[in-house]
Design a protein that fits this description.
Layout (H helix, E strand, L loop, with lengths): L10 H4 L15 H9 L4 E3 L2 H6 L6 H11 L5 H18 L6 H11 L1 E13 L4 E6 L7 E3 L1 H6 L8 E9 L10 E8 L7 H8 L4 H11 L9 H9 L2 H4 L4 E6 L7 H6 L3 E5 L5 H4 L16 E5 L10 H13 L1 E4 L2 E4 L3 E7 L4 H7 L13 H4 L4 E4 L15 E3 L1 H11 L12 E3 L5 H18 L7 H25 L9 E4 L3 E4 L3 H5 L1 H4 L21 H4 L15 E5 L8 H4 L1 H4 L4 E5 L6 H17 L6 E7 L5 H19 L3 E7 L7 E4 L3 E5 L29 E7 L5
Parallel strand pairs: 7-12, 7-13, 8-9, 9-12, 19-20, 20-21
Antiparallel strand pairs: 1-14, 2-3, 2-5, 3-4, 5-6, 10-11, 15-16, 16-17, 18-24, 19-22, 22-23, 23-24
Helix pairs in contact: 4-5, 9-10, 18-19, 25-26
């Protein structure tokens, strides 16, 4: 092989075997630089929240409000001074419950003192006055002027975090509360420039903007694929879209409720078990409105649980509200705009639920009802979202939460649901309710990603498909529960291209179980004499079939991000079987996980062949240009070559002359074009106890395509 890579000339060996240390960048990346340039004062480094929080039990948006005042900068000196300032403010003015008596003493001794606390207000009908209670300070009955309550009505439902000046005047009359509210300022931005927001959005590419939003909710975008990012952003739609009904069920620890408790001052997270008609809608006793009358988003945590007791009257009112955006107070009908979010944990795997029940199986019995479920606009597949780990959090710049929360709130008045109709038409048998659900999700994603309305047809198609998929997941499960519901072909037409069907990921992964009980559903593909049972198509429908026919699939297949059940054995095994000379072109065998992919392919070859035979693999790759990294890469490749040789697989290394193309050619006459090369699996640092560490089928893949062709050169 020409241009062979000589492993003995690696800088690693010249340095006596000492592995170079990882390079730590000290400068901002391009996204951080652009964020500070175009949104100066409205972005903040997201790791600062953890730096200042300490043991203060406050939502992130409270801390970011303070950081936005003092540390919204890219100047390190300003940032450090801002951190010190915020720490000082919290130390001086945040009320810890166990120090409430000390703070009371400060108020008494100074006569007036500023605090940060959660304030709730009630109406004392007997005395006809509003009275405030302070969550951490522990004082109640503080008189509040009606003008303050009218300007901040959320004080009456759930409470609001505020900056307050509290005064103390002792009175001989024991019935008079000595505490006086001098001033109250809710912790949220009072105004912003929406037109400036749109103009600045236009300065970013779509990928940059998505990454900026991901950093704004606190995550490192490098840890997520495109589909995973969009799933995270779906959680934000209730903040930008009125009366949006969203459900997310999945394993524990995936951050389902975090956004609704920490991200916005306009959202309220409550436990599913705490919901009552008066708290949520209206009290018939006093006519007082509940949460939906004042909050943009009401999220129900821990909503799942088959055995949970529910109030049937509440379920009926909720169904009417979710469908008609209204509820009754006596003879009066009231409207509201709050979006509803239902999040809960699942206790079974997706194929188990599909085989034995449905994907709503975990809901309380009263909610496991087709009429209620049909009001849901989107089902987030929580099982696709990775468990939150420390390395997933961002240290980059994102929007100050109270700034982006006000931007989102202003978007609720807009409607972008028709922006796809210039290019695409929904299927004719999609019902009005299905269509409304798709429209609301589509409109929400346009507001989040393309508020400046400069999306390409391809970008519009991407989010239209996503919106259809989320509604299809809801409808397909309803069909399992209610046989009277009519089936729907979910998809859209494109001028000049025709019909495009939309499927859910679990539908592609588990078709046998997904279509259970559907008389009109397509049957899963079964092996025949003209189809290889261990081909990608056959293997993807279930366990690997035993029979292998003479004909292998030729053509192209695409695989969806987050899909499971994929392995080199399924994708490549049948095509490499019997080959003794294999040519592999992959320019990116550089990092540890990429080396691992190569090892797993070589191990497959070693396991398939006769132990007495040898297989030659000619690997064409590219060396890293950074000397320190190249040394580490060469050491890894050397270890791989030596390990493979022990198993009868001889690996020859050479520099890849083709640049970025990735493909395999065998001496049995196959050429396989690899869209991503061997790097098809998502990186995971879950450790050896993760099943994905032992079996590729348990890992989630990145989006990729693969093409199988008979080699024209006839090797």
């Amino acid at each position: 092989m020409s241009d062979d890579i000589d492993l003995t000339e690696a800088p690693y060996f010249e340095q006596g075997g000492q592995e170079p240390s990882a390079h730590e960048p000290i400068e901002q990346n391009e996204l951080d630089r652009k964020a500070n340039e175009h949104f100066a004062g409205a972005v903040v480094r997201k790791d600062l929240v953890k730096a200042v929080k300490g043991n203060a039990i406050v939502p992130s948006y409270v801390l970011e409000y303070l950081l936005g005042q003092y540390a919204a900068s890219d100047d390190e000196a300003t940032i450090q001074a801002g951190i010190d300032k915020v720490r000082g403010i919290l130390a001086q003015h945040y009320v810890h419950r166990n120090e409430s008596e000390l703070v009371k003493s400060k108020i008494r001794e100074k006569g007036r003192f500023r605090i940060i606390d959660k304030v709730s207000v009630t109406l004392n009908e007997k005395d006809d006055v509003y009275q405030a209670s302070f969550g951490s300070l522990g004082i109640t009955g503080v008189i509040v002027e009606a003008s303050i309550v009218n300007a901040n009505q959320k004080l009456l439902v759930g409470g609001v975090w505020c900056l307050c000046d509290i005064e103390y005047f002792h009175n001989e009359d024991a019935r008079v509360v000595p505490w006086v509210l001098g001033s109250l300022k809710p912790i949220q931005m009072s105004n912003f420039d929406y037109q400036g927001y749109l103009e600045s959005r236009a300065k970013f590419t779509t990928d940059e903007w998505i990454d900026l939003l991901i950093q704004s909710i606190g995550f490192n975008p490098e840890m997520f694929g495109r589909r995973a990012k969009l799933l995270q952003l779906i959680r934000l739609i209730p903040f930008v879209e009125r009366n949006y009904n969203l459900v997310e069920l999945g394993p524990k620890g995936t951050g389902k409720s975090h956004i609704y408790s920490e991200f916005s001052p306009h959202g309220m997270l409550i436990s599913g078990g705490e919901v009552t008609v008066p708290k949520l809608f209206v009290s018939n006793a006093n006519g007082r409105l509940g949460l939906v009358g004042y909050w943009d988003v009401v999220a129900f945590d821990e909503f799942a649980g088959k055995k949970k007791r529910t109030d049937k009257a509440l379920v009926d009112i909720m169904k009417n509200y979710m469908a008609n955006k209204s509820f009754s107070r006596g003879v009066e009908t009231l409207g509201a705009e709050a979006s509803m979010v239902f999040v809960g944990n699942t206790s079974h795997t997706v194929p188990y639920m599909l085989k034995h029940s449905d994907l709503f199986d975990e809901l309380p019995e009263s909610y496991h009802d087709s009429a209620y479920l049909d009001r849901l606009h989107f089902y987030i597949p929580g099982w696709e979202i990775d468990t939150i780990r420390s390395e997933m959090f961002s240290s980059g710049y994102g929007f100050v939460v109270d700034y982006i929360a006000e931007v989102f709130k202003s978007m609720r008045n807009l409607d972008y649901s028709d922006r796809y109709q210039r290019y695409f038409t929904l299927g004719s048998d999609i019902s009005t309710r299905d269509r409304d659900a798709i429209h609301k999700t589509f409109s929400g994603l346009i507001k989040l990603l393309y508020p400046h309305e400069q999306a390409t047809p391809e970008e519009i198609e991407e989010i239209l498909r996503f919106a259809i998929e989320g509604r299809k997941r809801v409808k397909d499960q309803i069909l399992r529960i209610d046989s009277t519901m009519a089936g729907v072909d979910f998809g859209y037409n494109t001028a000049g291209r025709g019909w495009s069907a939309v499927t859910t990921l679990e539908e592609e992964e588990y078709p046998t179980h997904y279509y259970r009980g559907r008389p009109s559903a397509p049957s899963p593909t079964l092996p025949t004499v003209t189809e290889d049972a261990s081909s990608p198509e056959a293997s993807s429908t279930g366990p690997k079939a035993a029979a292998v026919s003479a004909v292998l699939f030729e053509g192209h297949r695409d695989y969806t991000e987050n899909q499971r059940g994929i392995s080199f054995e399924m994708l490549l095994g049948p095509y490499l079987r019997g080959a003794t000379d294999i040519e592999l072109h992959d320019p990116y065998i550089r990092q540890g996980h990429q080396g691992r992919n190569l090892v797993e392919l070589l191990a497959l070859l070693a396991a398939e062949k006769d132990p007495a035979d040898e297989v030659v693999v000619n690997l064409f790759t590219v060396l890293d240009e950074v000397p320190e990294y190249q040394a580490k890469q060469l050491r890894m490749l050397n270890d791989i070559v030596q390990g493979a040789a022990k198993q009868g697989v001889k690996v020859n290394l050479a520099k890849d002359p083709g640049g970025h193309d990735r493909w395999i050619r065998t001496d049995t006459g196959w050429r396989i074009n690899l869209g991503r090369g061997l790097d098809i699996f998502q990186k995971s640092d879950s450790g050896w106890f993760d099943f994905g560490g032992s079996r590729q089928e348990f890992r989630q893949v990145r989006a990729f395509g693969i093409t199988y062709m008979r080699d024209a050169e006839g090797r």
